[in-house]
Amino acid sequence: MDYRSLKHQTSTLFLTIFLLLILGCFASPRKSIRSRRPCKEMVFYFHDIIYNGKNFKNATSVIVGSPAWGNHTILANYNHFGNVVVFDDPITLDNNLHSPPVGRAQGLYIYDKKEIFTSWLGFSFVFNSTAHKGSLNFAGADPLMNKTRDISVIGGTGDFFMDRGVATLMTDSFEGEVYFRLRVDIKLYECW
Q: Cα separation of 51 and 63, whole Å?
């Protein structure tokens, strides 16, 4: 076999492999994320009672950081910009604060804009019920003035090992700057 023939066969082989790879990419069936159905759907409520200097016994959250013009018992002016709040809130299956909790929402929120009422959330649902064991972890921006807001479900443990998806938040109740209740509609798209 001469050099020209070997060179031609090698280039033909590489061209064939390249074309097969290209065809394989286009021929493989792919679903878009939007067309996928969730593998698990759940709805929970979490109840946040901010410490205001007078409600220590019932408080489930506390201001741990504030801007120079703020303090640790009253949320700051300018849409609470600069406040950092840590929480350990009960999670219930309905919107009643006195219903038996199925777990705790534990984490923090940071009010991160002066111009508009918004925050950034990072928290976990830690379950302790007979229906669910383990945790789900959430993170994302929460533009509070929107009726519904989506944040990422970024993983989990126990019954929710490595699960991922989207949680839609909706403020279900708001009582001044002391209490709010969020409805959390969870749709998991990756379930192991």
A: 7
Q: What is the pTM of this model?
A: 0.77
pLDDT in tens, 76-117: 665 687 788 999 999 999 999 999 999 999 999 988 877 887
Do 154 and 167 meet the contact criterion of CB atoms below 8 Å apart?
Answer: no
- The residues facing 11 across adjacent strands are none
Q: How many CB atoms lie within 10 A of CB 86?
A: 15
Among the listed residues 70, 104, 75, 112, the one whose alpha carbon sits nearest the alpha carbon of residue 87: 104
The answer to whether 181 and 156 have CB atoms below 8 angstroms apart is: no
DSSP H helical segments within the chain, as ranges? 3-27
> Phi and psi for 134 in degrees, rounded to 5?
110, -160
Question: What does the block give as tokens for 66?
Answer: 């504030």
